[in-house]
């Protein structure tokens, strides 16, 4: 999640990505995303097992910002909001 292209980044894990992205967009979720107005979903990965997803989240959270930006640019160079594509 981000607030704008090349803006603040948030990395998280969700079982129901559409619901969780909606919560962030509507400001329902307390915490970091609401505080910084992060409403744009710009990158997502799907995993078969929640433990694999959590491990990937932990790995990405420890990456330098430049690596995260490169990952987004690879799949979404215009930083388009992917929320409408989730359904």
Protein described:
- With 87 residues, this protein is mainly alpha-helical.
- It has one domain (17-85).
- The chain contains 4 helices and no strands.
- It has helices at residues 17-26, 32-35, 50-61, 65-75.
- The protein is globular, with a radius of gyration of 12 Å.
Describe the SSE topology:
Layout: H1 17-26, H2 32-35, H3 50-61, H4 65-75
What key attributes describe this structure?
87 residues, mainly alpha
Cα-atom Rg, whole angstroms?
Answer: 12 Å
Based on secondary structure, the structural category is mainly alpha
Strand content is: under 5%
Low-pLDDT ranges: none
What's the gist of this structure?
With 87 residues, this protein is an all-alpha fold. It is built from four helices and no strands.
């Amino acid at each position: 999640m981000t607030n704008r292209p090349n803006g603040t980044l948030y990395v998280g894990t969700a079982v129901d990505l559409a619901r969780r992205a909606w919560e962030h967009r509507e400001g329902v979720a307390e915490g970091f995303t609401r505080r910084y107005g992060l409403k744009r979903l710009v990158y997502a990965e799907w995993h078969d097992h929640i433990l694999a997803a959590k491990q990937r989240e932990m790995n990405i959270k420890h990456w330098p910002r430049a690596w995260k930006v490169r990952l987004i640019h690879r799949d979404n160079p215009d930083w388009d909001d992917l929320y409408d594509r989730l359904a």
